[in-house]
Amino acid sequence: MNTPSPSSTIRLYHVALSPFCRKVRLVLAEKRIEVELVEDRFWEPGSEIMRRNPAGKLPVLRMDGRLLAESQAICEYLDEIQPQPPLMPALPAERYEVRRLCAWFDDKFNAEVTRPVMNERVWKKVMRLGYPDSRTVKAGLSAIRYHLDYMKSLLEHRRWLAGDVMTLADFAAASHLSCLDYISDVDWTYSTEVQEWYAKIKSRPAFRSLLADHLPGVHPAPHYALLDF
């Protein structure tokens, strides 16, 4: 098994309320890979994000002298070098389903819900870019119901989103929903199935560091860190 070198410090350059950074953090924690978290306030002068990743995107993982970018590629790389516990299934058809759902949340859900809501309600405030556009927020919060309905349809026939075992697809979905839950923008009463799924994944040890996050100037919802919500 190819495991990280114990002599090298693993660093994750991240920002707390990024779903893509959170997905990588969950995988690292689930695999019990020790990592130093380094916040990169990419909107401030002095950020070295472009030097670490010419695409200008977080997260960036420094491991064994290499800089790794793109959250999905990082997560699958970690799953290959540290196979236990597995987050990608063994069968090609099952791996396809995991990747399809990861793309669903990282592309479609992000474009329709996470990005517009977080940009308006969090990042405009943090970056001092003015007041949120209420129409954009409303559209994002309206779109979330479609996605919760889709998740419910999956969970009515599966224990986890992609099948009977927890996979990277669950971490991708939980990363986006946890960001929105931080600002109390998920109606957990809308779907019992989705709420029970999130309660399961939220109670995992890998989730603890996410529940301890605190973005200066943006306080978490009172229920955010509670396992009984």
Automatic annotation (TrEMBL):
Residue intervals of the GST N-terminal domain: 8-86
Pfam families: GST_C_3, GST_N_3
Domain GST C-terminal: 91-224
Keyword entries, A-Z: Transferase
Any single biological process term in GO: glutathione metabolic process
Signal peptide: none
The name this protein goes by in its record: Glutathione S-transferase
GO molecular function: glutathione transferase activity
InterPro entries: Glutathione-S-Trfase_C-like, Glutathione-S-Trfase_C_sf, Glutathione_S-Trfase, Glutathione_S-Trfase_N, GST_C, Thioredoxin-like_sf
Oligomer and partners: Homodimer.
